[in-house]
Amino acid sequence: MRKPFIAGNWKMYKTPAETKVFFKQLLPLIEKTDIEVGICPPFIDLETAINMAKESSIGIGAQDVYWEEEGAFTGEVSPSMLFSIGCRYCIVGHSERRQYFGETDETVNKKVKALLKHQITPIVCVGESLEQREQGVTEKVCATQIKQGLQGLTPQEAEKIVIAYEPIWAIGTGKTASAEDAQETIKYIRSVLAECFGESPAQKIRIQYGGSVKPGNIKELMAQPDIDGALVGGASLKAEDFAAIINYNKK
Ligand code: PGA
C-alpha cells in the first residue's frame, strides 16, 4: 500500500514571520491523520518552518537545489545544506523552473541523484502544456520527462522518489484536470515507471496530482486508484484551505 502524501508548494510567497503565523493557524486544524504531509516554503523560511513543525508530523522541503556538494556557485544551495537543517523533501523540475529558469530533464536528473545521496526525497514534477495536450502528445511528453529525469536510477532508488503530475494548463488557473483524466495520465506514468524499473517498484512509487487542487476537489482526486496525493500551490498558502485538504477523508 502506498501512503498518501499531500505537499504544499508555497512558491515565492511568505516571509519567516508569515511562516510562523501560518503554522500557528494550521497545527490546531489538522486532525489526527495517517497521511504524510509536507510543506515546501522558500529557502529563507525553511528553518522557521522546521522549528514550527517539529512537534508535528509535517515534513519540510525545499523547492529547488543545486547538485554540487559545495563550491563557487553563487546563489545556489546544496543537498547537504538542506539535509543539515532537517529538510526531508525537495521539489525538482517544477514547470515554472523549466519555463523561467532553464531547468531541463538533464538538470532534473542531476538534482534527483544528488538529493538521493543525502536522503532527501525528490518530488519530481512532470506535465504537458495546453498546446501539447491539444496536439495529443501528453503521454509522450510525460514519458520523456520520466525516462530522462530518472535515467540511471536503480529500482531501489526509484522507489524512494515521488512524482508529481502537474498539467501546466491546470497550474494556478483554477482549471483542474478532471479526476478521470488525471487518473488516466497517472496510470500511464506508472506504466512508464514499470517499463523503466519493473512492476514492483512502480507499484511502490507515489504519484501526486498537482494543478488547482482545492478543498472542493481533493476527495474526488484521492478516490482514484493511481493518485496517491497532491502537490498544492495556491491553496497551501491559507492554513484553513490546506487543513481542509489534509483532512479530506474526515468529512
Ligand atoms: P496550484 O499550483 O495549486 O496553484 O495550481 C500547483 C503547483 O504549481 O505545484
Briefly, what is this?
Helix content is about 40%, strand content about 15%. By secondary structure, it is α/β, with parallel strands linked by helices.
Description:
- There is one protein chain.
- The chain contains twelve helices and eight strands.
- By secondary structure, the chain is of the alpha/beta class.
- The protein has a single domain, classed as Aldolase class I (TIM Barrel, Alpha-Beta Barrel), CATH 3.20.20.
- It has an eight-stranded parallel barrel with strand order 1-2-3-4-5-6-7-8, surrounded by five helices.
- Helix 2 links the parallel strand 2 and strand 3.
- Helix 1 packs across helix 12.
- 2-phosphoglycolic acid (PGA) binds next to strand 8.
- Gap between N and C termini: 23 Å
Number of helices: 12
Strand content: 5-15%
Average pLDDT: 96
Quaternary structure of the protein: single chain
CATH class: Alpha Beta
Q: Which sequence of strands runs across the widest sheet?
A: 1-2-3-4-5-6-7-8
The CATH superfamily label reads Aldolase class I
CATH architecture: Alpha-Beta Barrel
Count of discrete domains = 1
